[in-house]
Specification:
Length: about 230
């Protein structure tokens, strides 16, 4: 029986993040599913509990390795708890679990201030690509078609999402793939926990733009998790 992998995108973007990586992992014999968090921001808090439930439902009660990119990292352990267990967690340029803390409390103060200034009167932020402008996103995603499809999936974001305290989770073996220097610190923390860590000289959206380069080290880390 093949091992189940549940790929989780950041709540700030969409499942297209993993659309190129998923078939490459499936070619190696894994049962691969992509959890879609797209509808979890529409009904108000608690956002993280709802997102953890969506990830757990994607696993459908089967033992799985949960794989998170970027902001999805904080959801893996809570999803493991909702699912009743997980075989392991693979963090791909992602934050580590922060139970009892908010994302706002862990981000740089200048970014936190910027988010509060960007929010409209109803407490909504523009979609994540608009935070950086067209030129900034084009640097990460040079292909115009890919960039349009990626941006089209990115939702407006409630500021309350970043102030919400993250729930408790379930411990499981972990591994870490660092793609960009912005995630040096969690990679260092993962290594201190004794987890296998691979560092690439790449960029944060490499799963979208260069899936083959990302899939190979993921497969190596998955073999160590198993």
């Amino acid at each position: 029986m093949s091992t189940l992998l549940v790929l989780v995108h950041s709540p700030l973007v969409g499942p297209a993040t993993w659309s190129g990586v998923a078939p490459l992992l499936a070619e190696r014999g894994y049962d691969v599913r992509i959890a879609d968090l797209g509808d979890t921001l529409n009904d108000g808090p608690p956002y993280s509990h709802r997102q953890a439930e969506v990830i757990a439902r994607c696993a459908a009660g089967e033992p799985a390795i949960l794989i998170g990119h970027s902001g999805a990292g904080a959801l893996l352990a809570p999803a493991g708890l909702e699912a009743g267990g997980a075989l392991g967690y693979l963090f791909v340029d992602a934050g580590l679990p922060i139970p009892g803390r908010s994302q706002m409390s862990t981000m740089p103060l200048d970014l936190a201030d910027r988010l509060r200034q960007m929010a409209d009167r109803d407490g909504w932020l523009p979609p994540w690509p608009q935070w950086w402008g067209d030129e900034g996103l084009a640097e990460l995603v040079p292909d115009a078609g890919t960039r349009r499809r990626f941006a089209a999936e990115c939702p407006k974001l409630p500021l309350a999402l970043f102030d919400e305290l993250l729930p408790e989770g379930r411990d499981a073996p972990g591994a870490y793939l660092r793609l960009s220097h912005a995630y040096d610190e969690p990679a260092t923390q993962a290594r201190a926990r004794g987890w296998p860590v691979i560092e690439l000289a790449s960029h944060h959206l490499a799963p979208l733009t260069d899936p083959a380069t990302v899939a190979e080290p993921m497969l190596e880390l998955l073999s160590q998790l198993q």
